[in-house]
Structure formats: C-alpha cells, structure tokens
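To: structure desk
From: M.T.
Subject: fold request, one chain
Message: Could you run this one when you get a chance? Sequence is below, nothing fancy, just the single chain.
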Amino acid sequence: MKFIACLLSVSCLFLSHLSMAKEYQIEKWEVLDIPLLASEEDANPFTININATATHENGEQQLVPLVYNGDDQWLLRFSASKEGQWTFVINGPLDSLNSQTGTILVTENSDKSNHGGMVLNPDNKQAFYYEDGTPYFLLAYELDWLFALDYFNESDTPKSEHLLSLIKENGFNHIVMNVYAHDVRWDKDAKLKMHPEHEFGGIQEIFPFMGSNENPDFTRLNVEFFQKLDRSVQLLHDKRIVSHLMIYVWNKMVNWPAMNSAADNMYFDYVVKRYQAFPNVVWDISKEALFYGRADEAYIKNRIDRLRAINYFDRLVTVHDYKYCAKYPEQVDFISTQDWGHDIYNLMLNVRKRFPEKPIFNIEHGGYEESPYLVFPGDYVDPEVSVRRNWHSLFAGVYTTYYWQASAWNVIIYNPFEQPEDFIKPRFDYFKSLSTLFSVFEFSDFTPVPNKNGSGYNLVNNEETHLIYVSKDNYQMSRGNWYLRPKKDGVQREHQWFNTLSGEFTDFSVTQKDQKFISPWRGKADAILISRIIQQD
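Reply: Done. Structure tokens follow.
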C-alpha cells in the first residue's frame, strides 16, 4: 500500500507540473526567450548548470541551456529548424525550476529570407550553406565595438539600426564582432577630440563582469551587459546577418581574469550558453588567438573542447589565427586566415589547395579603407586597392572581409553619409558589386582554375561558365583563352563584361572565332569577363 501511495504521490506531482505547463509558439529559425523565476541563490547563479531537454513530436531531442538573467530570473532561449510540437522539461539543481515543463509549437517561417543557421555541406566542402540548403555567400564586415554603439540607450538601438541597414543594403551579410573589447593601444587621431560621439573605446561603464575594466569584480557577471548584447545579436538576426562572435580579444586592453580560472570559465560558458540558440551565431574563440603572448595552443584547444561540450545547437567554430587553424584543422569547422601579403591571390589559392576539406575565410587582409580619422591604416588604405584584395581572394575561392577604419574598431561613424562634406565617406558601393555579381552567378558553384588564368584570374562552374577577373591595366585578353571561343563541334559561346566598381553589366555578345577580349573600362576600372555556352535548341 505504501508503494501505491508513493506512486500516486509521484503521479500527482507529475500531473501538477503538466497542468502548470505553458504553451509557446515560434516560427522556424526564429528565437524564443522564455523567462522563468527561481529564488534559490545559495550558489553563484552564473555557475549553476541547468538545462532543458526539448523533445520533438517525432522523438528528436535538443538540449537547451538556461542562463541566469538577474533578479531571480532564468532565461530559456530556444530556436528550432524542425516544425511541429516540441515539449521541454527542465533538469537541474534548482528545485523551483526542476521538472518544469512546457510545449513550443514551431510553425513555418513566414519570412522566406530566413534560411536558418550557417552550416557546412558534405557535398561541397569548401563552401558555406544555410540550414535549408541555400548557398551562403559570406561577405563580412568588421565591426568589433557593435556591443557599445547603443549601450546607453535603454529602450532602442537607433545607431545600430542605421549602420546595419547601410551594411545590409550594400551586400554584407556577416559581422565580425567582439563580445567585448575595451580600448586600443595605438595613438588616437587628435581630430577625434572634436567628435567624441565617434569614440567608443575606454568606457569604464561597459564591462561584462561586475565592477569595471579598471576595477573588476570577477565573482559575478554583469547581466545588463549581456542584455544589451542580446539586442545587437537579435538585430543582426532580424536583418539576416551572421554574428561572427569573437569570445576573446587580447590586444584591446581588456582586464581579463586569469586563464582557466573559475571566472574565466564562468564568462566563457555563459557566452556560449546564452547565444547558441541564435541561428545567426558563429563562434570564434579569440581574435588573433596566439598573438600578443597571452594564450598558447593548449589554452585554445581547451577552449574549443569546452565550447564543443556545451555547444548543443552545433554552431560553427573557428579561431582567428591561421597558424592554429593550419596546425589543427580537425579542431575547427572552417579555416580563418590573416595575410597582408601583396600577392593575396596566390597566397589564398595556396591555402585553399592545402585544405580541400574546409571552407576558407580571409578574415583580415590588411586592406583598411581610409576614413576621416587615421585609426589603424594597415598596409592598404585606398578604397579601390582594398576592394581589389577582396576580389582577388574571392577568385582564389575563399571568402573575405571588409574593414573601414571608422567602424572596424573603437571609432564608429554609424551614419557616414550624414557627416560634413569634408569627411571621407566609405565606398560601400564598391563592395555592393561583389554581392551583385555573386547574386547572378552562384559563388559556391565556381572553382578557381589557375592553369587557365591567362592574363586574368579564372573561376569556372560545371556548366563551363567562366568568370575572369581582369585588371584595368590589362590591354586585352588574346592568348591562352582558346576555351572561350567557338568550338569545332559547333558549340557557341557568348560573353559580357562586369564593372567591379560600379556593378554595371554590358549586354551579352556572341563570341567570334578571332575574338579579342577588351574591357570597356580599360584603364578606368577592373572588370570581370563572363563567358558562357549559348543554350542549343
């Protein structure tokens, strides 16, 4: 009888939890935040490990971490790539949360521009895709201090909205950003003193731990900081822009806790748990991970292993350090490379050849376009030279990144086209041309063919469409391109030109046997020669 009574008691408790279960609804690949209250705080809430197990109606399961969100509130953040009903149950050391249940109905996404997270494709291993199988042409923009742009606006993010809208309008779909950075070590342009609204470095009130960067309290995290960062990542998601989230940075004057300390692990785990449900998140362990004498290979491997263990949503992982990626390619999902060499095409081509099983991302190539302030010039500041380095990387078959000095680091001009006339404006339009071309011709379908380069850089797809990058210094393409002319079997070809600066296409023309390929913008702008087979009836 005691056993039956006990069984009835457990059953009643279970039914009680079921009766309290709440129902939620979210579209596929959107993000649902479920706040839950729990008053127990005997332990440090930032180190308590508590998860929910979400089970789809077909039996598939997804582990979902909960994070402390301040004021006795915990946050269950969920997203799904499978429609249907999910039921979750919470398991963990907090009695008031343990065994709580709920159901989440995931419906078809109404926004067809939402293709899910960034993933790899086993059938095309050097290209990126979205979860629904759509190719993802990664075109990145460095914006390290995005977390600070609207930090002191309690209700809205107008500056971020303005700048990210400009970025999206010009074809960028990938933001390289820090979770946190404090300030820069290099000398700051004196002109910044006249425009303090453009300076976001050195602000003591912004810090991921309690206290400040100068006087940190490493025993607790600053929930407000992460709530503000939530807004940035969500805004990127709403705009269908990937957040390439660099968890650490060593050269931006951050007062980090000791490596592998309890505080270090608390911060790292919290970031991974809080942001992994966002489909637009990609992990980067650290900007320039092995530079500056702080971290070693063992520490970076420890961080990757630690991330993988709690990366329940399987977001992609890389390290902003080519030396590390090259030595341990099996530890990362894609290779990040940083190279300022003049011959960027051949340098990137060699990286692609070396790692045929991985996508390659040129995350930093030394082209830092000029701005009204001299922030960090790198080796190339001319806008045309900077965009050319991106084109050369793409024609080597690797993805690439844009830097403007007035938004990449501590200086951010969020509304550059509303500045005084004498302010240098960014040439976003040059970069829009990259996305224009590869919205017509799918980048993931093309492969570099350096043996057919001639006097240009050649990409080809399986339909024998050739894209050839031609310098404005090129007089004509006349030799070594026999494959672009009509063939003996009667197959005809046609060609057109594309201006890499303006994004302008010429009309297609039927290619003649003795065709000389001369760019209409010779001496004025680099161009792409496009040659394809004329469809036969």
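Reply (cont.): DSSP finds ten helices and 26 strands in the chain. Let me know if you need anything else for the meeting.
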